[in-house]
Amino acid sequence: MFETARLDELPERAARVLRGPSSTRPAIWLLEEGGAAAVVKDFSVNHTLYRNTAGRFLVWREQKALRRLAGVPGVPRMIRVIDGLAIFMERLPGRTLENLEREHTLEPTFFDRLREIVLQCHARGVAHCDLKRAANILFGEDGRPYVIDWGASISESEFRFFGLRRIFERFEEDDLLAVIKVKLRHCPERVSADEKARLYRRSGPERLVRRLRDRLREILQRIA
Predict the structure, then answer these.
(1) Strands 137-140 and 94-96
(2) Domain span at 176
(3) CA nearest to 96, candidates 135, 40, 132, 140
(4) Of all helices (H) and strands (E), which one includes residue 215?
(5) Do residues 25 and 72 lie in contact, with contact meaning Cβ atoms separated by under 8 Å?
(6) Nearest CA to 191 among 130, 125, 106?
(7) Whether residues 107 and 200 fall in one domain
(8) Are residues 119 and 212 in the same domain?
C-alpha cells in the first residue's frame, strides 16, 4: 500500500490533515488506501533550509529507530520513506493521553503493558527520550498502550564510546520514570512507595548525568 504516493500529491491524497505545518514542524497527513491507513510526517512542505537539514535528520532518526524496533508490540510499523523527507507509518487507532484523565480511568494493566513496551525497546538498544509528553502515548481502541513519535529517540550504538554509556542508561531510566509519572497522573493510588522514591532519588553523580542528559534532550526536542 501507498507505494505510488509522491511528495507533491500528499496534500491532495490526504484523507485528513492531522496537523498543519509550521516553520519548524512537519505536516502530518492521514492517508487511506485499499482499506489501509497510514500516518505521514511530511517535511517537504517546510522551508528549504529546515527541510533539508533538521527535516532529513529527523526522518533518518525515526526511520532508524522504527527499523530497529520492527515487531515490538505497541510501536508503529514503518511503511516507507520518500526522498528522505516524508515517513509513512502504520496508523494506530486510538487517542493520545492528553487530558484523557478527565474522561477515562486507565486500568493498572495499561501501565504494566506500557512498561513492557519500553523494556522491549531498550532491549533493542533504543530509548524514546520523550515519553513524558502525553501526546506520545496512545490509548488504543483495544485498551492497550502504543508509543509514537520516535524522532527524538537515541540509539545505544551512539553512546558506545567511553564515558557515554552512563548517559544512555540515564535516558533508559527516564523512559521508565516517565511510565511512573503517567501512572501517577492517571492512577495515583496504584503508585507504590518504591516507585515514588525512584522519581525523587538524587545523588551527586546522578545530578551531573541529569544535567548532561537534559542538555542533550533540549537539543533533540528543539529540532524534533
Answers:
(1) antiparallel
(2) 94-223
(3) 135
(4) helix 204-223
(5) no
(6) 106
(7) yes
(8) yes
CA angle 140, 79, 176 (to 5 degrees): 45
- Beta-strand runs (E) in 91-205: 94-96, 126-127, 137-140, 145-147, 154-155
Distance in angstroms (rounded) separating the CA atoms of residues 169 and 132: 17
- Asked whether residue 1 is assigned to any structural domain, the reply reads no
130 and 19 in a single domain? The answer is no
The answer to the question of residue 2 being in a domain is: no
With CA atoms as reference, report the closest residue to 148 among 173, 184, 114, 100: 114
Q: Are residues 204 and 108 in the same domain?
A: yes
Same domain as 156, residue 127: yes
DSSP-derived pairing of the beta strands 36-42 and 86-90 = antiparallel
pLDDT tens, position by position, 43-95? 999 999 999 999 999 999 999 999 999 999 999 999 999 999 999 999 999 99
- Note the residue count of the chain: 224
